[in-house]
Specification:
Number of strands: 9
Radius of gyration: 16 Å
Distance between the termini: 11 Å
Helix content: 10-25%
Shape: globular
Strand order of the largest sheet: 2-1-3-6-7
């Protein structure tokens, strides 16, 4: 029975390998930056119905703030540099509350080295009672290529939580491939591709 969800940014390298490495307890969704929130909610409702979800993870590149419907995970106040809620932020809050999620993990390199991401993690924990946010302070990914799967702020080793042994075939780190700042993201149409949401059945895996 599936009890966890992993969101995978379609701009990561070899998303099919990452996706197919999910274990039997984990429901996977590959998203584009123009994917609608409602389409994802429908996928989750179809899979889980009224059941709880224990954990959610989001796999994306280091420093990338883009998420759904051509928006960001969070916005920043230009004058104070404080994190501001937006529709995608609220989407995450609502998802955590609706499905009684206890942990959300951001599987990207060095998130904890960005002040804005630290504030975003704090915002989630302040907004959603009893949820723990995991994030990394160094390179996340294949151990053979200099990474690890440890959320340094919680100590959780997440490869065994979300993935099977097939994760060793993912030969990349979740470092940034772009040069922009998360404070000043580029025009979203540079990276937008056609919407596609996959779950394990799309690859012939139960």
């Amino acid at each position: 029975m599936r009890s966890k969800i992993v969101f995978i940014d379609s701009n990561l390298n070899d998303t099919n390998i990452l996706f197919n490495a999910l274990n039997d307890e984990t429901f996977g969704i590959i998203y584009d930056y123009d994917t609608s929130r409602n389409s994802i909610l429908q996928q989750i409702e179809n899979e889980f119905g009224g059941k709880s979800v224990s954990r959610i993870a989001i796999c994306c590149h280091e420093g990338v703030n883009q998420f759904l419907e051509n928006g960001n995970f969070f916005d920043l106040d230009e004058s104070t540099n404080e994190v501001i809620k937006n529709p995608n932020t609220q989407f995450i809050f609502d998802l955590l509350k609706t499905y009684n999620v206890s942990n959300i993990d951001y599987l990207a390199c060095s998130s904890l080295k960005y002040e804005s991401w630290q504030k975003f993690c704090d915002l989630i924990e302040n907004e959603v009672e009893s949820v723990t946010v995991g994030a990394s302070e160094d390179e996340t990914g294949n151990l053979k290529y200099g990474g690890n799967w440890v959320m340094e702020n919680t100590g959780d080793i997440i490869d065994n939580i979300y993935f099977s042994e097939m994760i060793e075939y993912y030969k990349y780190l979740l470092t940034s491939t772009f040069t922009f700042s998360i404070i000043d993201p580029p025009a979203t149409n540079r990276y937008v591709s056609h919407q596609h949401i996959y779950h394990k059945g799309d690859y012939g895996i139960d």
